[in-house]
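thought: fold this chain, then report.
action: predict
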Amino acid sequence: MEAIAEKVAEKVAGRSWFDALLEEGVLCATLYLVYVQGTTLLRLAHGVYQKAEDQVESKVQSFQEPGKKRDVTANNVPFEHSMFGAADWPLKALVAFLILSHFASTFFFPTYFATEQLWLARRAAIVLCGLWFGFRWKSNYTRLLIRHNPHDRDRYIVLDKVATIGLVTVAALSLGEVIGVAFQSLLAIGGVSGIAAGLAAKDLLGNLFSGALMYVTRPFKIGEFISAGPATGKVLDIGFYNTKMLTVDRAITYVPNSSFTCSTITNFSRQETRYIEGTFLVRHRDISAVDAITADLRELLRAHPAVDTQEQPPRAFLAKVGPLGAEIAMNAVTKPIGFDDYLVAKQTLLVKAAKIIESHGAVIGPALPPNWQQ
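observation:
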């Protein structure tokens, strides 16, 4: 009790008891008010910020599209999902810790709380509450992005993980500086060994960074059929080190992610329109019927429901005349259809084209010498 009395006497040294109690009371009342009314204050700040943002957006829209009014409040973020909502509980926790630490250092345990230790604890609390706020804001923002752009969900999840690593790293460095850990000395000591380890793990790190890059850029996703270098097949899984694929011959293949960054990737699953082409070789004596044949082939392509006549007009023409005969070529672009429907449409058109050629008396195939025809 004597030690406590001495500590309290030090607190009020040079001041009257009334002034000391008034100062302590104002400080505690302010902290208590922030703790109790913190949510109300944050909601008020969120409303002011949202109103200012709506005014700015309204002015931008009126400048870009004069005379046209649009509801600028449609994209407003609720308080629970905003930056201010993310700061609610971390701010309360920080204020509660400041109140408790102040009372403990002043009245309850004044002999056990040195000034340096108290400031150290308060700085650590600020760092931890800041990390908590960063996690909450990151999660709220990620959920908001996914809700507005669900097709980019994988990309936002990866960005969320990268942001998590960044927050933890910054918090760890800040906390280390607060408690007196010299990270610069540790990094300097481990510099040589870090370089050696980095060279040894070059391929591993390359695959890891390539995997993260693919999650962000999304040249393909799970379930799509792709071709990249020697690998062609369906993507079963995308890991941070390799990608699991099912090839056309039903074999499971694991492809290192670094191979995708230096290869041309063809994503067949995202191919909306497809290309149909065919070439028929007829005899030299059938060249007189080529005009009628190509006209009927063009009409065949225009009439098929799967052919897109707007994207590219269907073509049928005499491609070349060679020593084995005359080549009649046709090509067209399909409407957005699936791969199986594309194969059916291609087969139907090629069969009907062959029948059209034969209906004009032409023979498909090279002109064979007499001894070959026997």
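thought: worth noting. Residues 370-374 have pLDDT under 50 and may be disordered.
final: tokens above.
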